[in-house]
Amino acid sequence: MNYFSKPSKSFHKILRLVLLSVFILGCIVTAFFMYYKPSSPLLNHLLQSSDCTKNIPHVYSETNYKNMTIVLLWMWPFGQTYEMNVCSSAFNIEGCFITVDRKFYNKSDGVVIHHRDIAGDLSNLPKSQRPWFQKWIWMNWESPRHTARLPGLNNLFNLTLSYRRDSDIKMPYGFLVTANTVEDFVPPSKDKLVCWIVSNWSPNHVRAKYYNEFKNHINIQTFGRAFNKHIADKDYNPIVSSCKFYLAFENSVHEDYITEKLYNPLSLGTVPVVLGPTRENYEIFVPRDAFIHVDDFKTPKELLADYLLLLDKNEELYLGYFKWRRHFKVNIVKFWAELTCKACDYLRHKNEYKAFNNLNKWFWG
Active site includes 142? Predict the structure, then answer.
């Protein structure tokens, strides 16, 4: 027998079939692990080097979400789109993959659901069963008065993400951070005494009733849709910074509901006159000498209007409201990217089981 004779054609045919079968099997295994995160370094290496991944869509063949915390934003808040994967570059939060692609549902560590976009019958919420490791995060930045109480939500979520201090994931509208250098702050030049920009108007709002009395005793320059004086976004900062005082009146009064109406004038060198929760509540977030609270005065006329006119004439007293700027600066939250990144950061560091079983009582009381 000649052991060195050429293999027969049938042998070549069988060999090709075996190799083809191995290749197909390899592709099936590779595709399986593309959709279920591999934890083994060897499997990661095989996936990255396999030719079978070349025809898989780019987002799934990339390793940028492997071994990362995945957060699925179920609906764009108010339909507003934004750049998503900026956690590292913008907020120094590492290891996050934020997406709106619902194909990631089964492997998302958290699903963020914006309350104001939930349908009244809950029909636009996820239909698939929640994976055991996944947390649903209730996100809302409106006050209870302006948030519809929907049936069926009470025991649906694991975590809360809101402006409230007792939220699982706390994110106020703004906050103060320590300044890098200590120096006296000089406010911008002023040509207006009191200003107010408002679009959402209701005669039943506490702020509307207060304004209607207050305007009889002091000149207030008003802007916004409520006064048929629309202003462009680019004009907002110049207007507010040109006012000595700005009416930071919230549309409803609830604990911790302190919005950008406070933080914007603070950042622009204008003294806010606040109407909202108690002075004590405000002082948790900003120094007591950074703002004027309407509750400090018995009536709009007798004290508040007279006090603002006094400050207008006394520069030393007025500048006292900016002493805090020697040590702090204002950081205004960058909606909505910062919120989803904060949710991811929470999930990365706190992976214990958690359920929220009484949303109705907690938020609406």
Answer: yes
Distance CA 47, CA 29 (A): 10
Asked whether 348 and 317 are in contact (CB, 8 A), the reply is: no
Q: Quote the tokens at residue 278.
A: 């108690």
Tokens of 136: 């649903």
- The number of folded domains in the chain is 2
Catalytic residue among 62, 83, 142, 338: 142
| Structural domain contains residue 203 | yes
- The model's confidence at residue 184, banded by pLDDT at 50, 70 and 90, is confident
DSSP annotation of 126: -
The amino acid at residue 198 is V
272, 262 Cβ separation under 8 angstroms: yes
Per-residue pLDDT tens for 212-270?
Answer: 999 999 999 999 999 999 999 999 999 999 999 999 999 999 999 999 999 999 999 99
Q: In which domain, by residue range, is 143 found?
A: 69-171+335-364
CB 199 within 8 A of CB 233: no
Sign of CA dihedral 37, 137, 348, 87: positive
Q: Are residues 244 and 350 in the same domain?
A: no
